[in-house]
Amino acid sequence: MSIHLQREIENLKKKILSLGAIVEQAVQQATESIEQADADLASQVIEQDLRIDDTEVEVEEDCLKILALYQPVATDLRFIIAVLKINNDLERIGDLAVNIAERGKFLATQPKPDISFDFAKMSGYARQMLKTSLDSLVDFSAEEAGRVCESDDAVDSMNRQMYLMVQDSIRENINQIESLIHLLSVSRHLERIGDHATNIAEDVIYMVQGQIIRHKTENYK
């Protein structure tokens, strides 16, 4: 690897990890805006989205520049390809955080719905999946990435549980239908964040092992 290519790859790694940190914070603040009924915090997440979009474009442009100038091969090439895909997933997670924040702004103006679902727990799972997927990128670890893939079922199960709870609550609290539907949307967005974290982890496995494991159900290690 040339010194120039190595420098470009290190800079790219720093930039994608910086984007990941911004997105992690957006997800955390968005879910806190739900838990705390904090419309101002929700607004901060929405305003931050432009920064995420701009950074995503910068990362894509950097990847294309490296491919054009250095024509990387083997592990370096897989890293660039993985970053291109991870970059897109992070931008989508940022969009989902905005969607959650928009629900938070509405819910902050309404009486708290009578439902006992633990959003903090579900959000914690989704955020941990995202954090671990990014850690696996830093550590170049397929094993860490595999743990993310294996965690996805837990978030899916929570989303199904939320759906059933909202069904029951709508029957008993007809005057809270709009708020309950917004909460169901939040659950669905958290589930999608888990899906995108899984995508990132799968891309890390590809980067490390050169193996495309999408749609496979066997052990990820």
Keywords, please?
single chain, 221 residues, mainly alpha, Methane Monooxygenase Hydroxylase, Chain G, domain 1, 6 helices, elongated
Question: Can you characterise this structure?
Answer:
This protein is mostly helical. It has 6 helices and no strands. Helix 1 runs parallel beside helix 3 (74-107) and helix 4 (119-139) runs antiparallel to helix 5. The model has no long low-confidence stretch (mean pLDDT 91).
Radius of gyration: 19 Å
* Contiguous helical run count: 6
Q: CATH H level: which superfamily?
A: Phosphate transport system protein phou homolog 2, domain 2
Q: What is the CA-CA span between the terminal residues?
A: 28 Å
Instruction: Tell me which CATH architecture applies here.
Output: Up-down Bundle
- Count of separate structural domains: 1
The helix-strand sequence is HHHHHH
On the 0 to 100 scale, the average pLDDT is: 91
CATH level-1 class: Mainly Alpha
Number of strands: 0
Low-pLDDT stretches: none
Helical proportion, percent range: over 70%
Strand percentage: under 5%
The major sheet is characterized as: none
CATH topology: Methane Monooxygenase Hydroxylase, Chain G, domain 1
Strand and helix map with partners:
Layout: H1 3-35, H2 39-70, H3 74-107, H4 119-139, H5 142-172, H6 177-209
Compact summary:
The chain has 221 residues and is mostly helical. 83% of the residues lie in helices and 0% in strands. It has a single domain, classed as Phosphate transport system protein phou homolog 2, domain 2 (Methane Monooxygenase Hydroxylase, Chain G, domain 1).
